[in-house]
Amino acid sequence: MHTDTDTSVTFASLSLSAPLQRALADKGYVRPSPIQAQAIPHLLQGRDLIGLAQTGTGKTAAFSLPLLDLLQRRPAAPQPRRCRVLVLTPTRELAIQIAESVEGYGRHLRVRCALVFGGVGEQPQIRALAAGPDIVVATPGRLLDLMQQGHLHLDRTEFFVLDEADRMLDMGFAPDVGRIVARLPKHRQSLLFSATMPSSIRDLANRLLTNPVTVEIAQAGTTADRIEQTVCFVDRPDKHRLLLHVLNRHAAGQRTLVFSRTKHGADKIARNLVRDGVRAAAIHGNKGQGARQRALGEFRDGIVPVLVATDIAARGIDVSEIGLVVNYDLPEEPEAYVHRIGRTARAGASGRAVAFCDREEHALLRDIQRLIRRPLTPDTDHPFAGRGAPPTVDHRPPASRSRTTPSAPNGHGGRPSFRHRHPSPLHRGGNPYRAR
Q1: Residue 393 scores a pLDDT above 60
Q2: Angle ∠(403,405,406) on CA atoms, nearest 5
Q3: What is the largest CA-CA distance in the chain?
């Protein structure tokens, strides 16, 4: 297993071909991220690989750069309804972003990439496959449909990438992935990327990969050191007013991602924000493809600075400058918390993550703190401090606790709760999010 990082490594030292070096120079990229620096040499040598890395670590370039390089070094004529590289990913948004990255890095190469995902018409995708693309980036359901119709054959596929493997299984795609993998040649180079490595992913890796090298950038459950993480204890009816307070206090016009546990909840949160003059949009699985892409585009461009999302929809969000992540609802699975806050503090930036915890979410909070191996810092400087808090809270590491040390009565250092008696700046014209 490789976990160390040599900060002296540059893209120029990674033996990538001249056209790829030109594309990287065009983008102003000089030094690879840790996963890129560690994965690229192994992939250029033809090794199978397991990449364990959180969202925002640069894993798309970690696999697309060496695969583009290998395609260029081994030229082959296009074969109708066949591809040389198959990248399988759980969501259409992520598929689109991967394809855009591949096309950007391969701009000086004669490489064709086809996108396959549901929610849109099949005919353009069928035509793209008929032309014999070098690379196919796909979601499992639509890919399997087109394969069963005879529009794509995988018997000549040389490279297979399974991206976001943990989320792929969470979304119930395991049977589809199995059917697709069964059509792949036995002799191929395979890559698996995942943020976490539970036993189900390890079993999958054992079936897919041959003598793989493992590159681990962050241990499962760890979170970025540059993210300031706090928790606000609050009664559920007060969550919306607390969200307005947090946006006004912390975000200052930055892109903010708000997480809801349900699709209905995401719509309601966004609707309430818009009602109160906050430019916001919701994104989830029930939204049409056009609506999702429009919301993402407006969020990326800063037109809509607040995006409310469910966990599955958020897997396709790749925006580099998200300053604040709000967990309006705590996730049922603690690993999802790591995925959520990984949307901020990317590319060396710092970020902030705020979790709202009501009385029914205390157990979820304990699971999260156990997974990330640290307590979230209670935020007592908000209008609803003390409400919804556990009866006793000891946030020190276990080794420093004493059985005889009492906790503060309200779990917040003795600070009394109080009602918000003064109008919020959000209603005094100081709202940087107000719709125009």
Answers
A1: no
A2: 115
A3: 75
Query: What distance in Å separates the CA atoms of residue 281 and residue 267, rounded to the nearest whole number?
Result: 8
Q: Pairing state of beta strands 159-162 and 85-88?
A: parallel
Q: How far is C-alpha 283 from the geometric centre of its chain's CA atoms?
A: 14
Half-sphere exposure for 423 (CA within 13 Å, toward CB): 7
Q: Closest Cα partner for 234 from 300, 326, 167?
A: 326
**Which residues face 161 on adjacent strands?**
87, 191
Q: Is 185 exposed, middle or buried (CB count within 10 Å of its CB: 0-12, 13-18, 19+)?
A: exposed
The DSSP code sequence of 280-312 is: EEEE-TTS-HHHHHHHHHHHHHTSS-EEEE-HH
Give the pLDDT score at 284. 87
- 335 pLDDT band, cuts 50/70/90, is confident
d(CA 164, CA 193): 6
Strand order in the sheet with 85-88: 113-116, 135-138, 85-88, 159-162, 189-194, 49-52, 213-216
Distance, in Å, from the CA atom of 129 to the CA atom of 223, rounded to the nearest integer, reads 40
Give the separation between CA 207 and CA 41, rounded to whole angstroms.
23
Q: What is the mean pLDDT of the chain?
A: 84
Q: Compute the distance between CA of residue 109 and CA of residue 239 in angstroms, rounded to an integer.
A: 51
- Stretch 262-271: mean pLDDT: 95
Q: Which of 133, 65, 51 is nearest to 104 (CA)?
A: 65
Residue at 67: amino acid letter: L
Q: Whole-angstrom Cα distance, residue 159 to residue 346? A: 28
Contacts of 237 (CB under 8 A, 6+ apart): none
Asked whether the beta carbons of 152 and 82 are under 8 A apart, the reply is yes
With beta carbons less than 8 A apart as the criterion, state whether 368 and 330 touch: yes
Question: Which distant-in-sequence residues (6+ apart) come within 8 Å of 242 by Cβ?
Answer: 232, 234, 356, 382, 383, 384
Side chain identity, residue 385: A
394: confidence class by pLDDT, cuts 50, 70, 90:
very low
| Residue 142, pLDDT above cutoff 50 | yes
- Provide the 8-state DSSP code for 190: E
Say how far residue 284 (Cα) sits from the centre of its chain: 14
pLDDT digits (tens, 9 = 90+) for 244-255: 999 998 777 789
Q: Return the bridge partners of 255, or none.
A: 322
Instruction: State how far the alpha carbon of 221 is from the alpha carbons of 89, 337, 342, 356, 366, in Å.
Output: 21, 9, 11, 20, 14
The tokens for 67 are 């695969």
- Angstrom distance (rounded) from CA 171 to CA 118: 15
